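Let's practice the habit of predicting before peeking. Look at the sequence and jot down your guess about where helices and strands might fall. Then scroll down.
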Amino acid sequence: MSLIHNEQTKYIANTFDRASTSCITVGVFAPIAAALYAPTNMAANLLPFVISAVCWLFTAGVLHLSGKRVLRRLS
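Done guessing? Here is the structure:
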């Protein structure tokens, strides 16, 4: 394989990994921060938050594993 192909493969894998990090930030950490600073009662909205967080975490996991799979092309 050429050096250019290796660098492009690493770039694609990093893109997947950055997208997975963004999913965790947007889907999990941002709602937690909003709940901490919101004056409303969070207990009433707990179930949708948990379901959403699980979905975002699953998506992040799939994206991260996709990036690892792309890197396996280099071996």
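How did you do? The chain has two helices and no strands.
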